[in-house]
Amino acid sequence: MNNLKTTLLLAALTGLLMAIGGLFGGRSGVGIMLIVSLAMNLGSYWFSDKLVLRMYSAREITAEQGPDLFKLVANLAHRANLPMPRVYVIDSDVPNAFATGRSPQYGVVAVTTGIMKTLSYDELSGVIAHELAHIKNRDTLISTVVASIAGVITWIAHMAQWSAIFGMGRSNEDDNGGGLLGTLFTIVLAPIAATLIQLGISRSREYMADEIGGAISNNPLALASALEKIDYYAKHKVLPASTPSTSHLFIINPLSGTGQWMTNLFSTHPATAERVARLREQARNR
């Protein structure tokens, strides 16, 4: 099912890029953006996980470098009947975590140094189990593909915005610049469209990963407690290098404390309070 979602998502984002190309370059613009989008789709499938890890300066660790974390991930992966994922650490005091990789065989779990200092052993187990649930459900491919392509769309929007500021845009809708309509579409509608696509694939997956993660760790209440702690820190300090195009990867939106109404309106995560309530209900029903 997620393979179908990934295909539909890539097609939707390809169409969006081609629409932008058509507004600014006519038929030739459509052709150019089609070629660009095909190259992006291929690159996103094979290299999106590496790009995201590099963006956050994540470093891979071995069993010798981080024995406690490595053993915890290995035990939970075995319990979840998954291959051992690679383990990465992000040097940041802000607690958070995400998973990536195009399949369970290429799974990656990344955590910040802050999360290991902030959470108890049981709480960290719940977080790791949540990320393993994303790998088990094959959510990670679609998540990282979205991150890379949505990032490019946002970059195009920023380029169009600067072009308009410095007078490089055109006011005549018949010229190749796409006119005022094309500029407004790229600056405003394209990022919103990309965010809406992220929204459509993200919120339900978080609920499911919470439920499966609670089962894998055998402690839904510990995961609930971890979510509350991570959410508290996210509202008071932003994770360095975090962007709207990659925020959906994390267990808690790292931009939830920015105060930007647009970021909160199109949040890729369900409300933490609702997630905690569901986990507590799961614990009661065990």
Describe the structure.
By secondary structure, the chain is mainly alpha-helical. The protein contains 9 helices and 4 strands. It has helices at 2-55, 67-79, 113-118, 121-136, 139-165, 179-217, 220-234, 261-265, 272-284, and strands spanning 59-61, 86-90, 97-100, 108-112. It has a 4-stranded mixed beta sheet with strand order 1-2-4-3, with helices on both faces. Strand 3 (97-100) and strand 4 form a beta hairpin. Helix 2 crosses helix 4 (121-136). Mean pLDDT is 83; it is low at 169-177.
Briefly summarize what is shown:
It contains nine helices and four strands; from the N terminus they run H-E-H-E-E-E-H-H-H-H-H-H-H. By secondary structure, it is mainly alpha-helical. The longest helix is centred in the N-terminal third of the chain and has 54 residues, at 2-55.
Layout of SSEs?
Layout: H1 2-55, E1 59-61, H2 67-79, E2 86-90, E3 97-100, E4 108-112, H3 113-118, H4 121-136, H5 139-165, H6 179-217, H7 220-234, H8 261-265, H9 272-284
Parallel strand pairs: 2-4
Antiparallel strand pairs: 1-2, 3-4
Helix pairs in contact: 1-5, 1-6, 2-4, 4-6, 4-7, 5-6, 6-7, 6-9, 7-9
- Assign the structural class, choosing from mainly alpha, mainly beta, alpha/beta, alpha+beta, or little secondary structure: mainly alpha
Query: Termini separation (Å)?
Result: 28 Å
Low-confidence stretches: 169-177
Chain-averaged pLDDT: 83
Radius of gyration, in angstroms, nearest whole number: 20 Å
Oligomer: single chain
Number of DSSP helical runs: 9
Instruction: List how many beta strands DSSP finds.
Output: 4
Strand content: 5-15%
The profile of the biggest β sheet is:
4 strands, mixed
**Helix/strand order:** HEHEEEHHHHHHH
